[in-house]
Specification:
The structure holds two protein chains of two kinds. Chain A is of the alpha+beta class. Chain A has four helices and six strands; from the N terminus they run E-E-E-H-H-E-E-H-H-E. Chain B is of the alpha+beta class. Chain B folds into two domains: 35 residues, no CATH class; 93 residues, K homology (KH) domain (GMP Synthetase, Chain A, domain 3, 2-Layer Sandwich). Chain B has four helices and six strands, in the order E-E-E-H-H-E-E-H-H-E. In chain B, the strands form two sheets. A three-stranded antiparallel beta sheet of chain B has the order 1-2-3. The longest helix of chain B has 23 residues. Classes of the chains: A alpha+beta, B alpha+beta. Chains A and B meet through strand 1, strand 2, strand 3, helix 1 and helix 2 of A and strand 1, strand 2, strand 3, helix 1 and helix 2 of B. Strand 4 of chain A pairs antiparallel with strand 1 of chain B.
Chain lengths: 152, 143
């Protein structure tokens, strides 16, 4: 399969504490010039996104595709999945600020699958998601969990 | 103090024919945004993708670290812009990251700007999280 290339742009004006920046999805233009500041990155988001929130969206998007693929491979294509990712940044002694954790929780509606099927797909998705692997190699704690959604 | 940031995504149907939505992020700054396999692997057609979001995280993180480094050395920037390109090889993962930054920094020469850019490339939290990418390159120049 050919390589996938995606681009984003950021701008910044002024110092880090008093200045401000923007971030734009340059390949798709799905979002354009979203404001970012240091204060909203580490404190109250104040309706502004941040590098960590963008990583959470990336990991959620990557993982949901991995999980769906693994369920499909196991003979149980999902009808619907919902997944939340939380990225944690913290100051690590002697190493400055780091992404220390990514926590993913998923619920899935998978006709004909039992919990063992889901847990097997979850483990395979975690091993196969390239972004999970990168975060683990960098020392981040990646935790994943999934539950089956009951039919109404 | 630890900082948590959250995003929620839903997916309906199969990988190739179905599609997903980044429904919401904790800040409320964007969403819902559609994601599909086709727009991830082929033409974006207005839809974002995990790789583009990683590029966006990286570009904004690098920019904050660079402005911090410049100001700390007594050369706060007037402004600069950063473009990050992420290359993903299906089956292998992210194989390349490229950072290009250009800006205006009073009182600093190009070599000094490059030095600060290199520090930000190595030291920003997103760069550290992505340190396993086999090839990361940087081009820094004054505008």
């Amino acid at each position: 399969m050919p390589r996938i290339v995606r681009k984003a742009e950021a701008t910044w004006e002024g110092s880090v504490s008093r200045g401000a920046g923007t971030v734009t999805a340059a390949s798709s233009r799905a979002f354009d010039a979203l404001p970012v500041t240091l204060a909203s990155r580490i404190g109250d988001p104040d309706q502004k996104t941040s590098p960590e929130e963008l990583l959470a969206a990336a990991h959620a998007g990557c993982f949901v595709i991995s999980l769906g693929s693994e369920l499909h491979r196991g003979g149980h294509p999902p009808e619907r999945m919902e997944l939340t990712c939380t990225i944690t940044m913290d100051e690590v002694e002697g190493q400055g600020h780091q992404i220390v954790a990514s926590s993913i929780t998923a619920t899935a509606h998978v006709p004909g699958a039992d919990d063992a099927d889901l847990q097997a797909a979850l483990a395979a998705a975690d091993a196969g998601c390239s972004f999970s692997s990168l975060l683990k190699r960098a020392g981040a704690d990646v935790s994943v969990s999934a539950t089956l959604e009951r039919e109404d | 103090m630890a900082t948590d940031r959250t995003a929620t995504v839903t997916w309906t149907g199969t990988l190739l024919e179905g599609g997903g939505t980044i429904d919401s992020v904790g800040s409320g700054a964007f969403g819902p945004l559609d994601v599909t396999w086709t727009s991830r692997a082929e033409e974006p057609s207005g839809r974002t993708s995990p790789e583009e979001l990683i590029a966006a995280a990286w570009a904004s993180c690098f920019s904050m670290a660079l402005s911090h480094g410049l100001a700390g050395a007594g050369n706060p920037p007037t402004s600069f812009s950063t473009t990050v390109t992420v290359t993903f090889q299906p089956g292998e993962g992210i194989i390349r990251g490229h950072i290009a930054v250009s800006g205006t920094v009073p009182g600093l020469d190009e070599a000094g700007f490059r030095e600060h850019a290199e520090e930000a490339r190595v030291g920003c939290p997103v760069s550290k999280a992505l340190a396993g990418i086999p090839e990361v390159t940087l081009v820094a120049s004054l505008a």
